[in-house]
Amino acid sequence: MSKFHSDYIITMKDIVREKNEILRQPTQKVMVPPSNEDKQTLTCMMHFLKNSQDPYLSKKYKLRAGVGLSANQIGLNKRMFVAYLTDEEGQKHEYTLINPKIISHSVSTIYMSPSEGCLSVDRDIKGFVPRYERIKVKGLNLEGEEIVLKLKGYSSIVIQHEIDHLNGIMFYDRINKENPFKLPENCKMLC
């Protein structure tokens, strides 16, 4: 049985760091419908994100603020993640996705300046990470029902970052090795 039940509080000691090989392995699909254990783990992961963004709780538990968390970042080889973010218009979004897959994307790309960050990476990495400006993602929600999300801008970047985690890809793998600030054509900065 997993320790990540609904009453468990995830802290930074639970977050797997970048040298751990689980972050480089493509994750295994989650059985459908999701088990109670998987549902509790996802709920626990979402609580971590919300706690990490709360000034009082983040200080109390010494949490780094996060907007996304994949199961392999807490040491579980499962294709599922959560995201809790505020978009460019100030709207809050809460996503729980099981077995997600990008089914279509824009030609245009965007990036965040100066770079992206990651709870599993404790060092400062400079360089632009090109991402699709818009994506359509198919997956399952917490109840095991199929959902399709159309995302753009910051939401699109966060979800692509988490899906990369599930595929064993770190954000800095997408930075140009010769010139970290070189961008592909048709790539603009997220405003």
State the total count of DSSP E strands.
8
Can you identify the CATH class?
A: Alpha Beta
Helix content: 10-25%
Largest sheet: 5 strands, antiparallel
Structural commentary:
The protein is α+β, with helices and mostly antiparallel strands. It has helices spanning 36-53, 55-60, 153-166, and strands at residues 68-70, 80-86, 92-105, 109-111, 131-132, 134-140, 146-152, 187-189. The chain starts with 35 loop residues before the first helix and ends with a strand. The longest helix is centred in the N-terminal third of the chain and has 18 residues, at 36-53. A hairpin with a 5-residue loop joins strand 6 (134-140) and strand 7. The chain has three helices and eight strands. The strands form two sheets. The chain has a five-stranded antiparallel β-sheet. Strands 5-4-8 form a three-stranded mixed β-sheet, covered by helices on one side. It has a single domain, classed as Peptide deformylase (Peptide Deformylase, Alpha-Beta Complex), CATH 3.90.45.
Give a short synopsis of this structure.
The chain is built from 3 helices and 8 strands; from the N terminus they run H-H-E-E-E-E-E-E-E-H-E. The chain has 191 residues and is of the alpha+beta class.
Q: Which helices and strands appear, and what pairs or packs with what?
A:
Blueprint lengths: L35 H18 L1 H6 L7 E3 L9 E7 L5 E14 L3 E3 L19 E2 L1 E7 L5 E7 H14 L20 E3 L2
Parallel strand pairs: 4-8
Antiparallel strand pairs: 1-2, 2-3, 3-6, 4-5, 6-7
